[in-house]
Specification:
The protein has about 400 residues and is an alpha/beta fold. It has 15 helices and 14 strands. The protein has two domains: about 130 residues, Alpha-Beta Complex (Aspartate Aminotransferase, domain 1), CATH 3.90.1150.10; about 230 residues, Aspartate Aminotransferase, domain 2, CATH 3.40.640.10. Helix content is about 45%, strand content about 15%. It has a seven-stranded mixed β-sheet, sandwiched between helices. β6, α8 and β7 form a beta-alpha-beta unit. About 50% of the residues are buried.
Length: about 400
């Protein structure tokens, strides 16, 4: 059989508890979703501000579709750059305090295209070991010499920067690390950029809309900016819609427009999504109660959980990881929660390092405090039962 080797590989993944499958949702995103015919209290989505099914965004999308249609028809540089795209790029640049911004269809494409356009042979990339896969893949595809530094280890990074000869140096880091929920040491990273003449590409997929003044992201959280900072934010998480953007100095954004393959050689996202995102950005700026509520929910969960064998990682963000360790046990825990009416999927290698399989609990401003308290009680009880 021509695919016998693939079948064997799938069987090995299944035996190790690493085989993943999709779940079918038949409802809008929200605190409660209908999964394969059953309503569950959901702690699985990155819809941090509860905007994914907001009526104002749906209305803006419908009005945008009536005006611009549902397909862009071409790449931005050919005939696919609509007025709503242009307005959204300007609004995003202003929001994050950068001179210019460029839209991409996904965060993965933004990171891949940005790294590939900014560095190449003769250059060096320095990447945190826990960065998102898109940054790592961008480094590989760029042709630059790639270095990995230990997670959050600034001394290790400084040593690599000092000893690696290169024409250009580009540091890559998540703003909020997607599986651990911790925040990158941005001020110190920018200091290293100054000391070693480097740039920093910050993937703020999980900080944009959540951290900082009016949700302006990790740089605002630290009250730091720099001409060496290149900012990537996604628009399908806290913003509730889809897409991503890279913002930075005008010459950086122009180089991406000219050279980023994932921008130049792909059809533009539909213009009606940008209409919805302009409304989302207005809500993010004006409705600070959503971020205040998230902070309260984080405190509720952390105060109510009393785990001893499983580990709740330190995080002040809506990402609250409960590390179980063995992937099969993590899957069993997820299934036990589902039997009790909760959806919190197990996250396993290679998404996280071996031995750190976990539940990645995602909180949303749409959750009620009682929802979060119930989840904590169930987790406490399931851990007690697992020790018997």
């Amino acid at each position: 059989m021509p695919y016998e080797g693939l079948r064997e590989e799938l069987a090995r993944l299944d035996a190790a508890g690493l085989l993943r499958r999709r779940r079918v949702i038949d409802s809008p995103q929200g605190p409660r979703v209908r999964v394969e015919g059953r309503e569950l209290l959901a702690f699985a989505s990155n819809d941090y501000l509860g905007l994914a099914s907001h009526p104002a965004l749906m209305q803006a999308a419908a009005e945008g579709a009536a005006r611009f249609g549902v397909g862009a028809g071409a790449a931005h540089l050919v005939a696919g750059h609509f007025q709503s795209h242009e307005l959204l790029e300007q609004a995003l640049a202003d929001f994050v305090g950068q001179p210019a911004a460029l839209l991409f269809s996904t965060g993965y494409m933004a990171n891949l295209g940005a790294v590939q356009a900014l560095v190449g042979r003769g250059d060096a990339v320095f990447s945190d070991q826990l960065n998102h896969a898109s940054l790592n893949d961008g480094a590989r595809l760029s042709g630059a010499l790639s270095h990995r530094y230990r997670h959050g280890d600034l001394e290790h990074l400084a040593t690599l920067l000092q000893t690696a000869p290169a024409r250009r140096r580009l540091i890559l880091s998540d703003g909020v690390f997607s599986m651990d929920g911790d925040i990158a040491p941005l001020p110190e990273l920018l200091e290293l950029c100054e000391r070693y003449d480097a740039w920093l590409l910050l993937d703020d997929a999980h900080g944009f809309g959540v951290l900082g003044s009016e949700g302006r992201g990790t740089p605002s959280h630290f009250r730091r900016t720099s001409p060496r900072l290149i900012y990537m934010g996604t628009l399908g998480k806290a913003a509730g819609v889809a897409g991503a953007f890279v913002a930075g100095p005008a010459e950086v954004v122009e180089i991406l427009l000219q050279r980023a393959h994932t921008y130049v050689f792909t059809t533009a996202a539909p213009a009606f999504l940008s209409c919805a995102l302009l409304e989302s950005l207005r809500l993010i700026r004006q409705e600070s109660w959503r971020r205040d509520r998230l902070l309260r929910l984080v405190r509720v969960l952390r105060d109510r959980l009393s785990l001893s064998r499983w580990q709740l990682l330190s995080s002040q963000t809506p990402i609250q990881p409960v590390v179980v360790g063995d992937p099969r046990e993590a899957v069993a825990l997820s299934r036990a929660l589902e039997a009790r009416g909760f959806w919190a999927p197990a996250i396993r290698p290679p998404t996280v390092p071996a031995g750190t399989a976990r539940l990645r609990i995602s909180l949303s401003a749409a959750h009620e405090e009682a929802d979060v308290a119930r989840l904590a009680e169930e987790l406490n009880e399931l851990e007690r039962q697992s020790g018997n």
